[in-house]
Specification:
- There is one protein chain.
- The protein has 579 residues and is α+β, with helices and mostly antiparallel strands.
- 22% of the residues lie in helices and 24% in strands.
- It binds 2-acetamido-2-deoxy-beta-D-glucopyranose (5 copies).
- It comes from Helianthus annuus.
Length: 579
């Protein structure tokens, strides 16, 4: 089943000056410079009639967390997915709420008797048993928050401001007196970016719930697909008026190096730069002097990095990229290997829809929904319209295959759409992309071996939970505990968890929050005094937490030296009361 609706406060255009380069009559057809449509596809088990999942597509960048964040995070899409899956699980079972009616003083007394366990050995997969939401068939509901034509859409919806003056940045360059590093986008939780992530996640989650509960219309009709690989470095494109042009080998302009208001770049570049100074030209030519053909082909982009002409130790940019159309009845999904800007996405969707209607013999009509699935199958950076390309902001400067990149996508997608509409089966599969998986460079060395300080075991406490004067924590408080802990990269504990908040139920400890939960933070640091590793677990007691007795549990793994076997451990803090 599927349903569509509008979500108007989860994205803004971060390159509005480039959007204004698009023709006025085209812009006049749309209320805003970003798409607000969210499309939801709901999956229902045919036998049991139970919902088993939902996909949504909505265009907004996962950049609520800035580049200063060092925690592993799914950003606003990940937050929305977790909120949605938790919502579905709690509305469908009702059994996950803990109801402890005990008197507060009883809780405080009980908590004070339970001390930290100290570090103990455990199995490689032990932590998987402590996941709150396991992938073991219990609650299998999947809430996926997919990307769409996100190229110029920022979740930092309050706009971009200069951090020195607080004034809006330069409109055309997103800089402050020529310095792009001072111009930063603000999320709705500004200055708290974790709060911004949560709010943008919640907005997508709330809209998804609304669409999910309204989705009654069953998708019927054909299931079909077309897929092809294309060498995008020299596609011949037929433009309006029968003129022809070509795409180019990949290249990046200086606007790419400038970054965006979601994360500025470095070295003094600005978005919208159409010139490169002599110094950077010399640096560029040292790496790879772009060919005359490339310089001409990419105009008006000045070539800063001719990645399509750089092959050491392997190609710096993809040449062969896949495009794909999937059809479920009247829903048509376009899988694009990059980030289409808002207007690029509109042009592609509308053109493909027209091609389907024209060639479909009544099978497609105005009711056909075309959705762009962004950043799929491979990644080839951005796709701006030829008009936006003229301004060479970040998105235009990152449009790899030259000014006619979008026109080439539209042309090639229309070939697939025509084949699908006419029911022609086979499209040639195209050239195969090279498999580089065995030659990938890895710049991050493995951890070199870890031991705890003398007389201590990994999983022992460095700082146990410090109990407030009142004896218990309240909603919104942040209890924390610090464990001696090796580098977490020995084993990423996939399908498991580094951190758990457990709740005492009778005589048993039950996991209540894990490290995938928005309220629980797992931070690893080197102890400044001793240079041994420390894991800090911090829990922001959520409003929904029940009164009760809780404790922290930590999982980790270590190797004594690079060659030795991996050892696994766990440890729990002292207990504390929440009232
Ligand atoms: C931005 O650039 C355009 C030309 O591309 C110019 O017309 C406009 O005045 C500039 N706006 C500002 C605020 O500088
Ligand atoms: C793509 O096409 C170009 C131009 O025809 C060719 O030189 C290049 O080798 C092709 N790339 C790959 C990866 O096949
Ligand atoms: C474009 O070229 C094709 C074939 O070369 C021709 O059939 C068509 O009439 C031309 N269209 C225009 C608008 O010139
Ligand atoms: C096609 O559908 C759109 C909305 O999806 C609507 O605005 C438009 O009027 C429809 N056009 C026709 C010709 O029915
Ligand atoms: C070590 O010192 C830095 C800088 O003072 C501080 O930010 C960091 O939190 C400290 N690490 C630990 C584990 O205390």
């Amino acid at each position: 089943m599927f349903f569509v609706g509008d979500l108007d406060n989860a994205g803004v255009n971060r390159s509005p000056s480039a959007y204004l380069f698009n023709p006025p009559d085209e812009r006049a057809r749309y209320p805003r410079d970003v798409d607000t449509l969210m499309i939801l596809l709901k999956f229902v088990d045919a036998t049991s009639q139970k919902s088993i999942g939902a996909f949504t597509w909505f265009a907004t960048h996962g950049t609520s967390m800035s580049k200063d964040n060092t925690l592993v995070s799914g950003d606003n899409k990940g937050a929305a997915a977790r909120f949605f899956e938790d919502w579905f699980t709690s509305t469908s079972t009702n059994s996950t709420t803990f109801n402890t009616q005990d008197d507060i003083s009883v809780l405080i007394n009980k908590a004070s008797e339970i001390k930290a366990t100290g570090g103990q050995p455990c199995g490689q997969t032990s932590s998987q048993g402590f996941k709150v939401r396991k992938n073991d068939g219990g609650s299998r509901f999947v809430g996926a928050f997919c990307q769409s034509n996100v190229g110029d859409v920022s979740p930092n919806v309050l706009g971009a401001f200069c951090i020195d003056t607080g004034l809006p940045c330069d409109f055309n360059h997103s800089s402050c007196n020529g310095n792009d590093q001072l111009c930063i986008g603000r999320g709705p939780g500004y200055p708290d970016e974790i709060k911004s992530t949560k709010i943008i996640g919640e907005r997508q989650f709330h809209k998804a719930v609304e669409l999910f509960t309204s989705a009654k219309e069953q998708l019927t009709g054909k299931i079909d697909y077309r897929h092809v690989y294309l060498n995008f470095t020299n596609i011949k494109v037929t433009l309006a008026g029968n003129k022809t042009a070509k795409t180019c080998p990949a290249a990046l302009g200086p606007g790419f190096a400038a970054g965006t208001t979601d994360g500025p770049g470095a070295f003094g570049f600005q978005q919208g730069d159409t010139k490169i100074n002599e110094f950077w030209k010399r640096v560029r030519d040292f790496l790879k002097k772009p060919s005359d053909y490339q310089v001409d082909c990419q105009k008006p982009k000045p070539v800063l990095l001719s990645t399509g002409e750089m092959f050491f130790p392997y190609a710096w940019a993809p040449a062969i990229v896949p495009i794909q159309i999937l059809r479920i009845g009247k829903l048509v999904i376009l899988s694009v290997p990059g980030e289409f800007t808002t207007m690029s996405g509109r042009r592609l969707r509308e053109s493909v829809k027209q091609t389907l209607i024209t060639n479909g013999n009544g099978e497609f009509d105005n009711d056909t929904h075309v959705v762009i699935a962004g950043l799929t199958n491979t990644y080839s950076q951005y796709i701006a319209t030829p008009e936006e390309y003229k301004q060479q902001r970040y998105e235009g400067a990152s449009t790899l295959y030259g000014p006619h990149t979008l026109s080439a996508y539209i042309q090639e997608f229309n070939k697939l759409a025509e084949s699908m509409a006419k029911g022609r089966k086979i499209v040639p599969k195209g050239p195969s992309p090279p498999d580089l998986s065995s030659v990938q460079l890895k710049l991050l060395p493995d951890p070199s071996g870890d031991s705890p300080p003398p007389g201590v075991k990994f999983g022992n406490m460095k700082h146990d939970v410090s109990i407030p004067k009142s004896g218990s924590f309240q909603k919104g408080d942040k209890p924390s505990a610090v464990f001696w802990s090796p580098n977490p990269r020995y084993d990423l504990l996939t399908e498991g968890t580094y951190a758990v908040v457990e709740m005492l139920q009778g005589e048993k400890w039950i996991p209540a929050y894990d490290d995938d939960d928005f309220s629980l933070f797992f931070k690893w640091n080197i102890d400044n005094g001793s240079s041994y590793g420390l894991a800090s677990l911090e829990w922001e007691v959520p409003d929904s937490a029940s009164n009760g007795v809780y404790r922290f549990r930590h999982f980790g793994s270590s190797k004594k030296t690079i060659g030795s076997t991996t050892e696994y451990f766990t440890g729990a803090s002292s207990a504390f009361a929440v009232s």
